[in-house]
Amino acid sequence: MKIALIGTDGLPARYGGFETFVEQLAPRLVTEGHIVRIIGSSKGRISGIKPQIHGVEIININLSANGVSSVLFDLLSFIRVMFWADGIILLGISAGIFLPVMRRFTKKSRLVINIDGKESQRSKWNSLQKSFASWSELVAVRSAPAVVADNEGIAKILSDRYQRQASVIAYGGDHVQRLDTDTADEILRTHFSLTPSSYALTVARAEPENHIIEMIEGFLKSKIPTYALVSNFDATPYGRAIKDRYQNERRILMIESNYKASDLASLRSRCLVYIHGHSAGGTNPSLVEMLPYARPILAWDCEFNRFTLHDECGYFNSVSNLTKLLMSEQFRKFIPSTGLITDPAYNWNCITSSYIKLIKSLPVRSQ
Question: In whole angstroms, what is the distance from residue 45 CA to residue 35 CA?
Fold first, then answer.
């Protein structure tokens, strides 16, 4: 089949979960014998057709994939593939209001939408943006030939709100780099001036629904020496406010977005405890990517995180609650089980097979 992946910033991945999803899924689709095309943004990249990456054709258009331009970006991306693709995977609901038209013009009507999390409830949006997101989600869910939810919690919402059954296909975590202990410790010392097993860690975008301030406040009341936070602090007002507020706090180590696999591997594999504050998404990639390292995890108490972690690990929903967990220092009981770490739902090869099976299951419209 000819399969198009649209609705993301593109490759190489440099933004968030959807881009990591594309980076992992696309070459595996090629390995399975499919022809894959990705539409991405040329902002900071070369416009037009790029050389293939792992056999994947990449076309970049001169428009940002995020923010207010995302609706037009997704629509133009669709136009570039609608007569070419046998199957289209649309990531996100930005162009959801156009789904009825997209469905009609998809070459074989094999159109799959992954709706991501609860976009209409993200704190970063104003009331108008939230209303548009709700409307776009409604139209998308009711019009798409197939809907994917990355988490059972999202699937339940779609069932309750729209009476629409979604295929649950999560994100993978088995792609993360592993390092031997000596290499990881050397990177910690030379790159971050950290001592192994002496710090808490969070990897998250600087958004209110990720509860970074609450996690910092909870940490500061604990006895753990350092809290390392990897985030795009300089990219958002919320992130800049965090830097201004805690820049003189010596126990807080703020690391601007770092996508270097070895750096992330060293930070993740040698942390004392990982703190996850996401609350608005479904299966969050940064949480799944922690599982292979078998480190203690404390997550914000919401149904999405409980579904992802199979109710294992630890949960908090307030500053005081987090402080209590950190002060207990009984971190071993928060380590994910082997069954959770090796769950096929988080294996990229299994995820690839699920998407192929879903696309093939859709009826082909008469031409």
Answer: 23
